[in-house]
Amino acid sequence: MPRTLAIGDIHGCVIALRTLAEYVPFDTDDMVITLGDYVDRGPDSAGVLDWLIEREANGRLVAIRGNHDEMMLGARQFGGGSWLACGGDMTLESYKHDGQFGTVDDVPTAHWEFLESKCRLYYETESHLFTHGTPVSDVAIADQPAFSLLWNFWDSPAPHCSGKVMVCGHSSQESGRLLSIGHAICIDTGAGSGGWLTRLDVESGEYWQADDDGRTRNGVL
């Protein structure tokens, strides 16, 4: 039976992402929902975007945009000083060639198109809401300000007015453990900052984790 699998903030950790895919393989029919922050901090943002584009071409993928992805898009248009200070320097390093540090001009068109056209601010099923940041609890998901969905940190959120379970990233759990309060779950477990990348089966509550050293572990909420 196809699964609904949410993946937390990846932050350039393509080894962890590939390790998860080898640890418990993704089926073509699985709905894979990535919660944003594909770039910055980790060593291979370019490789992460390649993986996501390949998944979209050969399976089911819903890609949500994170604030770091938004900053990268802004750097293309307005310049990247603040973005570079937030980990964008590592992203550009993943595009280096001939020993030269990469620039925004070295980012392939396919990567820009993915971030700009394929990523959305939220995804909704009959039972769950998927976002990067933490939505405002008393505002319908379709009416949320973009700022909330991109930038709001977890702050013991109240149940959302839709009655659906919210699954988000953005608020890194330094413990490496998922944070669940029943009606809301945060699965950002520190990838890109020496932590774990998490994949959660939202129906069963089973989860799998990997890091950029190739270690794995699993559990159940």
Structure write-up:
This protein has helices at residues 14-23, 45-58, 67-78, 81-93, 109-118, 146-151, and strands spanning 4-7, 31-34, 60-63, 122-124, 128-131, 165-168, 179-180, 184-186, 197-201, 206-210, 216-220. With 221 residues, it is α/β, with parallel strands linked by helices. The protein has one domain (4-220): Metallo-dependent phosphatases (Purple Acid Phosphatase, chain A, domain 2). The strands form 2 sheets. Strands 3-2-1-9-10-11 form a 6-stranded mixed beta sheet. The protein has a 5-stranded mixed beta sheet with strand order 4-5-6-8-7, with no helix packed on it. The two termini are 20 Å apart.
Describe the SSE topology.
Layout: E1 4-7, H1 14-23, E2 31-34, H2 45-58, E3 60-63, H3 67-78, H4 81-93, H5 109-118, E4 122-124, E5 128-131, H6 146-151, E6 165-168, E7 179-180, E8 184-186, E9 197-201, E10 206-210, E11 216-220
